[in-house]
Amino acid sequence: MKRFVPGMLLAVLLGITGPCFAASSYAVVSGVVRDVHGTPQMGALVELFSVDASAIVTAFTDDHGRYRLSSVLPGHYQIRATAAFLVPVTRTNLRLQAGAAAVVNLTMSTLFEAENWLPAQKRRADEPVDDWKWTLRSTASRPLLRLLDPSNDPEDDTATSSTASTTSSDTAEARRRSLQGWASVSGGDGNFGQGGVREVLMLNRTLKDGSSAVMRTEIGDPSQGTSTAASTEMTVGYERHSPLGGSTRLVSSYQSHPELTYGSGTGLQVLRLASTEQLNLGDMVMIDAGTLLQAERLEASRFASEPFVRVMVKPGSNLMVEYRYATGRTLQSSGDLDDLKPTTDVLTDAAGRPLMAKGSHHEVSVSRKLGGERSVTVAAYHDEFSSAALQGSGLVDRGDLQSLSTEGLGMVTDPTTGAFHLAAEGYSGHGVSASLVQPVTSSLSAWVEYDLGTALRSSFPPSFAVSNVQSHIAPQTVQAASVSLRGKIARTGTSMKAEYRWQPSRTLTQVNAYNADPGAAYLGFFIRQKLWRGRFLPEGMDAVVEATNLLEQGYQPVLAPDGHTLFLAQMPRAIQAGLAFNF
User: Fold this and answer.
1) Which DSSP letter does residue 403 get?
2) For residue range 493-546, what is the model confidence (pLDDT) as tens digits?
C-alpha cells in the first residue's frame, strides 16, 4: 500500500497544480467602456481580434461598463468596442505576454463628436474669428471634468480612461477655465449696422454636467455726425447634451439700431429665438433640425419662421452624404448658433414696411476624406428667394430716401458707415459647387472653392439712375472661385484668415448664396495677434484687425435723385480694428 502513496500524492498534486501552471501561460484583458461624457456603457460588445482580423474572444459589459476577456494566448491583438448610438472604437497594437493582466479602458464617442473628420459646412469650418464667435466645446475636449483615470482619482467616479489623464496642475487650469470671457473695444469704418466704436463683453460658462451657457452684449456708439442713441445687441445661449447623443441648443438675441433710416422713419428692432436639436441614429446617421423665429420692427412689424433640417449619412469611414433644406441664410445648422454676432439683414418696401426675405435651399453633397486632413466636397443645389438684398455705399440723405420711396424703391441706410440695403425682386436658381481642404501645417489649412450657379447681374451703363435699377438687373448663371488660408500660425500667437473671392464684375449678389459667407467679398483678411506680455500689459491681451473688400472690386456707380454718386457692391469696403482682453 505504501507503494501507491507517492503515486496517489503525485496525481493529487498534478491535479491541483496543473491548472495553475496552465493558467500562467494565458493573459487576461479587462477594463471599462464609457462614452465621452464619462458614463459607463452597459451591454457594449467588446471583441478581441488577432492580426488577421479574426475574432478570438468576445464579452459584454455589465451595468457598470466593465468587461473581462480571459484565457487569451500571448501575442499581438486589437480590441474593439461597439454599442448602439455610439461610434465603434478600436485599440490597435495590443501586446499581451504570458500571465499578463492588461487593463484597457475604452472611450466611445457619438456621431456628433466624431463628425469633425470632415468639414460640416465649409463656410464655418476652421474660422479663426473667435472674438465674434461662441465655439461650443464638445464633451470630448471639455477641459473641466472626466479627465482623470479612476485609479488616479478615486473620488471621481465619472472619469474616462487613462488615455485622457492629466496632471493635477492641468486639471486646476481646466477648472479655472470653466468660466471664460473676453472684452473688446474696436472702431473704424464698419459694415452696415456696425459703425462707430463697438464695446463687447462675452461670458462663457461650462457647467458641471457638460452643458454650456453663454452671454454676449455689444454696445455701439454711432453718434459721430448723428444725434441717435447707441445701438445695442444682446445674445444669450444654452447647450445641453442629449443622453442618446447629439445636443439641444437655444439661443435668443435682441438688436436695436436707432441709427438706421428708411423713408420717413428711423430705427430698427429685431428679436430672434433659435432652437436646434441633433439626434444620432446609430453610428451612421445624424439628423439636425431647428427653427428660427424672428420679429422685426421698422415702420411696421414682421414675424417670420425659418425652419431647417439636415440629414447626414456616413456609409464609410471616409465618406459622408448630406441633404440640407433651409428657408433662411441665418440658421442652416446647429453650428450656425456658434456665431453670437447676428447679422443686421433688413429689407423694406417703399412704405418702410419690412419685407419677407424668406426662401428655400435644397442641397445634396458628398464629402470624401482623401487622407490625413485633406477632404473634398461636391454639391448640387436649388435656391428660391422671395426678395434679394442689393448692398452699396455712398452719401444718401433723407431727401434721397423720400425721393426713392415715391419712385417705388425701398432703401434702408446707415448714415454712420454710409452703407445701404436696397430691395430687389426675388429669383430662383440652381448650381453646383466643389471645395478642397488642404492642410498647410498642423494648424493652418488652405481652402479652394468653385461655384457655378445663379446670381443677379446688372446691365446698366455708368451713372445710371438708381431709381431704374430694377429694370436693368436679372438672374444669370455665372462662375465664382475663392481661395483662402485659415487657422493659426505656430509659435506666434496669430490667428488669421485671408481670402480672395472672384466673381464677374457686374455680379450684384453672391453665387451659391446659402453657402457663401454673407460678410465676405473679394479680398479680405482677419488677424488676431496675441500681444507681448510685459510690465504694462496684462496676460490675455490681443489685437484684432478685420478688413473686407480691400480692392474695391465690384463697385458699380449709380446716381441718387440729388445727383450724388452711389455705388452698388456685394459688400462695401470695411476696416475695423481694436483690442480684446481674454480672461
Assistant:
1) H
2) 888 889 998 998 889 889 998 888 777 788 988 888 888 766 666 677 888 898
Strands 27-35 and 106-108: parallel
- Phi first, then psi, for residue 469 (nearest 5°) are -65, -40
d(CA 402, CA 410): 10
Strands (E), 243-300: 247-262, 265-281, 285-297
The number of angstroms, rounded, from the C-alpha of 245 to the middle of its chain's C-alpha atoms is 18
Of 51, 56, 6, 64, which is closest to residue 29 (Cα–Cα)? Answer: 56
**Helix/strand/coil (H/E/C) assignment for every residue in 143-212:** CCCCCCCCCCCCCCCCCCCHHHCCCHHHHHHHHHCCEEEEEEEEEEECCCCCCCEEEEEEEEEECCCCCE
Query: In this structure, what C-alpha cell is assigned to residue 466?
Result: 438708381
Residue indicated by cell numbers 433710416: 261
- Of 287, 241, 238, which Cα lies nearest the Cα of 142? 241
Q: Which of 474, 457, 553 is nearest to 509 (CA)?
A: 457
DSSP symbol at 36:
T
Burial of 433 (0-12, 13-18, 19+ CB in 10 A): buried
Amino acid at 95: R
Please list, in sequence order, all residues whose beta carbon lies within 8 angstroms of the beta carbon of residue 1, skipping any fewer than 6 positions away: none
Residues ≥6 apart with Cβ < 8 Å to 427: 385, 388, 454, 456, 475
Per-residue pLDDT tens over the stretch 62-99: 888 899 998 899 988 989 888 766 777 888 888 888 88
Residues 6+ apart with CB under 8 A from 521: 501, 510, 548, 549, 553, 554, 569, 570, 571
**3-state SS class at 512:** coil
Radius of gyration in angstroms for the set of CA atoms belonging to the chain, rounded to a whole number: 30
How many angstroms separate the CA atoms of 112 and 449, rounded? 25
- Give the Cα separation of 107 and 51 in Å (integer): 22
